[in-house]
Amino acid sequence: MSETEIVNISPKENTYLLGHEQEETFLLDAWKENRLHNSILISGISGIGKATLAYKFAKFLLSADEKKRAEYSSLNISMQDSNAKLVSNNSHPDLKIIERDYIETDKKKIIKAIKDGDALDEEELKSLKKSTNIRIDEVRTINEFLAKKSGNDGWRVVIVDSIDDMNSASANAILKVLEEPPYKTLMILISHNPNRLLPTIKSRCAKINLKPLDEKIVASLLRRYRPDLDEPSIKELSSLSSGSIGKALNYADNDALNVYRLLSEIILSKEKLELKSLLDFINLYSANEDTYELVKELILKFIAENIQKVHNIEDFSKSWEESIKIFNETSALNLDKKQALMNVIINLNKRI
Question: How far apart are CA 220 and CA 298, in angstroms?
Fold first, then answer.
């Protein structure tokens, strides 16, 4: 795939959202009927449009004329609208975005590049690392933001992407904001795993749970964003991605179909497993963090896809928990990634 054909649009800029029409109508009706909750939790698996919906509604809320509520039939706002442009550029004075910041050394790189007038290229941007959590200091900036008056007595919107990235201190800090929200303030919290959130945070939010996208919708979006993909690849990627267009695009860009086929061949070779083939595969896909994470994900996908096909389901199902345990320990203790992949794949090969 040529780089010129790859279309990557950030949720801030994206105006094209499929598969969540019911949720869009829910938000529109709540606004039109003046019963919009001041805190909304948007949850669902990664890559299905949670952030896109959040920014789409932010553009609408900061652009729509409240005196003409009855005239609106959708959340669609023209990208020529000045407020929508400001949201897309992350420069709207009434929008606050809370997300993980870059680590200090990489923040200095960004600041230096800005001062020197020398923009970082795509590879340099990809190499930048973000902190593990949203820091409490970042959450405290919400109070500074809310202390200022909005333009034209309009709405102020805070988007937290994602609240899963908060530690206990920052989660408790944002809870205080949720307890006493100022007038005409909307807090939008994005979560990939709401079960891990504090019950007190969830109880203070209206909840929108986005379901995985239908395979036909994933396929449609793949045709839009990766027009050079052939139909068989689109069909396979749509099936493999579990209803996530974000995952499908990542798979398309990282040759995941071939990786998955090769992984499947190695595991299914059973007693004919060749050590050289296994080592070549492991050396290739543990070379960097991105490929390692891709193979981890595809291994778990393989287990899920094949658990109903094996003779000893109970025995094979243990592979899921064991694989998760090995991957978690490898990450937490900074153990050898090659050895982790070796252990997991050999275990699957013996049990399949």
Answer: 23
